[in-house]
Design goal:
Elements: E1 2-3, H1 4-11, H2 15-23, E2 31-32, E3 39-41, H3 45-57, H4 62-71, H5 75-114, E4 122-126, E5 129-140, H6 141-154, H7 157-160, E6 164-168, E7 176-185, E8 194-197, E9 200-207, E10 210-219, H8 226-238, E11 241-243, E12 248-253, E13 264-273
Antiparallel strand pairs: 1-3, 2-3, 4-10, 5-7, 5-9, 6-7, 6-12, 8-9, 10-13, 11-13, 12-13
Helix pairs in contact: 5-8
Length: 277
């Protein structure tokens, strides 16, 4: 048997926690010395304590844990609950990491603006481009990123070397219900749709030519893409241009890291010179 201190050390919990669980009849020692009052535990009790701690990690209150223990849920049920909670936490972590990358990108844009760093923008003439594309309304940016990645993953090998793109066709700037077009450039016009899955169909389309496209390249995950738009906006103000048309985001290099840090995207925005005063 183990003293409360020894058992607490083995279980990586505090003695105070064990005493409290004893007081509320949640987890009691196997024996209490009547003369000294010392509490003793056995190795077999570790399983029960781990079940209690696992339920606590799931977010259950102590009263809920007591009822759950009394109901004697199976190990399989507990494992299923823990795996579900683990998946939820992982999704929360991914969302927080995206937020961190977005914040870092905005800080960089602020720094470039305050230090008058020259915008890395060039003007291109872009011809008509044949494509296969799908247009969807996405609930939010994270959902759009996941769908865009799915389109790239499902693309047949004969088109996989094409340049993927995304176009936001929402009438106004918004963070939700995004009207987006996802597609891939093709070498020649296509005469029929391309089914990627039961619920994803790419249709033949064509992107119009533009005489003047302000372009810049951004390296990083899609949630950092606004750095490029900040650059183009600064460039247009410095050089007396105005944005004039639907912008495009072209994937120059697919990400090989899960966080997307090595993805390379070219932003293209139609522009025209401001009229002379």
């Amino acid at each position: 048997m183990y003293t409360v201190g020894e058992f607490a050390h083995l279980a990586h919990v505090s003695k105070r926690l064990l005493r409290y669980y004893d007081e509320i009849d949640l987890f009691k020692p196997i024996q209490i010395d009547p003369s000294s009052g010392y509490r003793y535990y056995t190795a077999k009790q570790m399983t029960q304590l781990n079940r209690i701690l696992a339920l606590k990690e799931l977010g259950l209150t102590l009263n809920q844990i007591q009822r759950t223990i009394a109901d004697d849920i199976s190990s399989e049920e507990l494992e299923g609950m823990l795996r579900l909670r683990k998946a939820e936490i992982e999704q929360q972590m991914i969302a927080e990491q995206r937020r961190i990358r977005e914040i870092e990108a905005r800080l960089e844009a602020i720094h470039n603006d305050e230090t008058n760093t020259p915008p890395n923008v060039i003007i291109k003439q872009v011809p008509d481009i044949h494509a296969l594309s799908v247009r969807r309304t996405m609930a939010d940016f994270a959902t759009a990123v996941d769908f865009y990645t799915r389109v790239q993953t499902l693309m047949p090998r004969r088109f996989a070397s094409g340049r993927f793109y995304c176009i936001c066709r929402s009438d106004t700037d918004t963070l939700h219900d995004l009207d987006l077009e996802f597609g891939v450039f093709v070498n020649k016009p296509q005469d029929k749709p391309l089914a990627l899955s039961d619920d994803v169909m790419l249709n033949p389309s064509q992107l119009p030519a533009h005489d003047k496209m302000a372009t810049t390249v951004v390296t990083g995950a899609l949630e950092t893409i606004h750095r490029g738009y900040a650059e183009i906006t600064r460039w247009s103000a410095i050089n007396s241009y105005r944005l004039n048309g639907t912008h495009r985001e072209l994937c120059l290099q697919m990400a090989t890291h899960l966080d997307g840090r090595d993805m390379i995207t070219e932003i293209q925005v139609p522009v025209e010179p401001l009229p002379l005063p």
